[in-house]
User: Fold this.
Amino acid sequence: MTRVDSQALVEPAPEPQRPVTLPSVKASPPSGAETRDARDAPAPVEPEPLASASERLVHGGEIARGGMASIGVAFDQGLLRRVAVKRLRGHTDSVGRQRFFDEARVTAQLDHPNVVPVHDLGLEPLTGEPFFTMKLVEGHTLGQVIDEAHRHELTPERLHPILQILVKVCDAVAFAHSRGLVHRDLKPENVMVGTHGQVYVMDWGVARVLHREPTLDRAPGWAEASLLSRDPDADAIIGTPDYMAPEQALGDARAIDERTDVFGIGGVLYYLLTGLGPYSRTSSRAGLSQRGEVLPPEDQGVWPRLPPGLCHIAMKALAPEKHLRFSSVEELRRSLEEFLSGGGWFATQRFRAGEVIVREGEVGDSAYIISEGQCEVYRVADGQKQPLRELGPGEVFGETAVLTRKPRTASVAALSDVTLKVVTSASLDNELSRNPWLEAFVRSLAERFREADAEVASHRRARSSSPQPE
Assistant:
């Protein structure tokens, strides 16, 4: 079966709640009183006996509905707080009920700051329908956060906070993997972002246990968890079609592992870059039976210019073959952090040994940083090549062109196969905008360079126009 279940905990305008009567407390005498009889002290407030989970809840309205369950808001009269209540809807068969119970127990035992906390699990007294309560997240789905970003120009200030959210998603999913669980339904709608920066990975209803003896919390001696001891839909196609990894779309349960979730996170990143799921342009029916290559983000980006480094991360995570993806969510997380640390706005180019990268006399607008390999700088005089120096990893050439847009003063060729970072004015602006102090420093240096270059050019013109001695 194909399951598409978007259950975002986005709270609507608050509805009137049933008043809760709290025990009264006798007022204390003024603090200035020097003596006080113990009999005059206020009586201790004794809590009323707590009712069952279902009886304590004062239900408000429904705030979300999916294919398998609905979510409402309620007030817990025992703990005096609002909660979200998830109910199974229309799935009374044993498989559906078991999956619902498993979701509550899996989520409850994933004790991580980026997994929404579960408070209680119970049955409705009249209908016997299961429900569980969890933290009510006030905020937006990650999909809504991204959609809002798409309405504006792409800048590092707008992009990087969303990537930091994705880093927290990686943290939660990596924790689940350490407990032997794969989420299987990662998408923008299943990540909640709170009003104060909280990030929660939601909807663990189709999580799959990879190990037959899960390492989830146990209480030795008197209680043992039997979490997901069976997989009732082992060969079913479960998840959201646009974000399914190929092995998941084929219903090959034995092929599902941590890299299936790597694909899912890559899909969320792809949505950030394009506004589409990886397979949104593919017919769902055809896509489920045969997965092709994902179109590069650059070909359909929401913004006219996308960060090359981020596009590379997305495409590696979305590789059709598992062994070509990141080997783990931790590795994907490290790549996102490297992008955030700088350099991800620079494109990467590769040249074979012997290829000329820049030519003397050409007007260029790019500089290059050598990542791998060796290059040779040379000039040509009277038809003869004159080597000037060799460059290796970490060295830069062509920076004059970025600052002055004047013709190249020398040629550079690859001595071996080389990998270069390409620095343009636009990409340099994006990198520098993340650090205003460094930006001010570099721009000051660039301005001094231009002034010095203009002064040298002026002296040359003066010499050429002055009369020469006979």
Summary: The chain is about 30% helix and 20% strand. The two ends are 96 Å apart (CA to CA). Confidence is low (pLDDT under 50) at residues 1-36, 212-216, 218-230. The longest helix spans residues 436-465.
